[in-house]
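Q: Got a minute? One more chain.
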Amino acid sequence: MEPESTYRKIVSFANQNPACHVATAEGDQPRVRGMLMWYADESGFYFHTASSKRLPKQLEKNPKVEVAFIRQTTDPSQMEALRISGVAQIINDPNLAERLFTERPWLRDFEKIAPDSRPVIFRIANGEAYFWNMGVNMREDSVERVRI
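A: Always. Here it is, folded:
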């Protein structure tokens, strides 16, 4: 893992900009979807979905993912993105699931829509992260990658 201050900047950016896009693969077809990250800390970047959706099945077959977080501004030249690639790990922890429902009580409403579905929590770790902005647009390969 990189120096704590670098990792903290990455975690802070993700927590401040939790709306993101997550890319997976289904066979040879890329799949991307907008998501709302739950939280990030020193152990990884946490997300949740539902067992009735395609995402958990995609992660089981191929856990490699990439996430893009974007900090929007009114000036497009000042836009900044954080890209993270890594391995998604599905976490079966009842205490973490209870925390999820405590922090996001609106998720309980989905039980009415899909009573047989359950929450699936996953963490992205074991990969790399880097910041991108228009200043490095033509030099993407030279941007520093940080191990997560």
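A: The mean pLDDT is 91.
Q: Perfect, thanks.
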